[in-house]
Amino acid sequence: MTDIKKLTDFLSIAEKLECEYRLTRMSDGKKQAVASHSWNMAMMAIVFHPYLIHSVNLERVLELCVLHDLPEAIAHDVPLHEQTDEIKRQKHTKEQSAIGTINALLQNEVVAKGFDEYELRQSPESKLVKLLDILDTLVQHMCAQDLSYVGTYKDNFYWRAFFSESFAAKFDYEPVLRDIYNEIRGRVAERLKQELNLDSTQFTKEGYNENI
Fold first, then answer.
1. 99, part of any domain
2. Is 211 inside any structural domain?
3. CATH number at residue 20
4. How many domains does the chain have?
5. pTM
6. Looking at the domain assignment, is residue 212 inside a domain?
7. What is the rounded CA–CA span in Å between residue 32 and residue 129?
8. pLDDT tens per residue across all 212 residues of the chain
9. What is the 3-state secondary structure (H, E, C) of 34-92?
């Protein structure tokens, strides 16, 4: 028998994803909602699908796009530059608890398996979704009204990551995504020079060793 109360309780949780904000800024200067981030990923999945070299189930890709950050409706988002080893452990514990709460309400196998699938990143669908997850952040670097919001967190943490070759190589999995990344990187490099007087080549040379 369908438990309408539990399904309705879930809707109250899911709505909070629209109220949870990321570090990234939008073209109007406002912070990006996590729900908006998920929507952008789903849109990119649909648009890029015809150009992919790896065969994927588009329906499953869209499911993972929508589900991948859902635990943050309860556990909240933590900016990457703040994620020390201890904070990462705490974040993982909170998200696992949130997943337990969501699964208890829904008892939906598609949803339950989706969380594990995304984290394990073994399926072609989950590998693609992770790349879209990263790519959407880069889109916001390109579109943000003012790049100073990224600032120089942790000694240019984000710029060292964005312009490093090790980071770029992640997109080699799907050539069309690598081409898009290269285009975005060029546009952001121009903005950095104009707006912050930063030469992006310094970040490429410095490299990037942290795991994203």
1. yes
2. no
3. 1.10.3210.10
4. 1
5. 0.92
6. no
7. 18
8. 789 999 999 999 999 999 999 999 999 999 999 999 999 999 999 999 999 999 999 999 999 999 999 999 999 999 888 889 999 999 999 999 999 999 999 999 999 999 999 999 999 999 999 999 999 999 999 999 999 888 767 788 889 889 998 899 999 999 999 999 999 999 999 999 999 898 998 887 655 555 44
9. HHHHHHHHHHHHHHHHHHCCCCCCHHHHHHHHHHCCCCHHHHCCCCHHHCCHHHHHHHH
